[in-house]
Request: fold
Amino acid sequence: MPIPFQVGITGGIGSGKSTVTKIFASLGILIYDADSHAKALMTTDGILVQQIKKEFGNLAYNSLGTLDRKYLADQVFGFPERLEKLNSLVHPRVAEDYKNWVEQHQDKMYVIKEAALLFESGSAKQLDKIIAVTAPEAIRIKRVMSRDKRTEPEIKNIMQRQLKEKQITEMADFTIVNDEVSAVIPQVLKLHKLLSNKGPFSTGRID
Reply:
């Protein structure tokens, strides 16, 4: 059964992944936002709901059946092993959901999976090419402070739990620089042309 060429987009918090994926979307490319789907599945996927209740208690959900995100955040924040356990429950269900999504779009040239933890979850192994989105740490912090109203120490704590940017770019096939100096749209257009033809590829930074 034919499946479309599968491309992953990843990067640390505040790197600008969503900006890049929006440009791809404007070109008609379908985007699977893994983080958004994960949040939805934690309420709608019966298997995952039962797993979360078993591990973190029934209080993880309110009387209406929706996830109590604050309660769950309190259960895992500052406890790496608990966060790892939650991810080990969520990632397989997202992987299954993504697989079903891809099968529904076999007529597409290529599709994109956007995920912050693309390498950490192991899902990068199932993709044909990976794009890393990068930006200087100071810019990333400024973006997140403006977007999420988080404090700088909170953001740095999240960054410390994610792969370093150098690690991500070394493992990725392409790098898009979103540093508010380099023009992003030309970088995306160049990659779109390559991906639409499935090559020829020369990996590295897109300029």
In short: The longest helix spans residues 80-103. The chain has a mean pLDDT of 90. The chain has two domains: 1-30+109-207, 35-104.
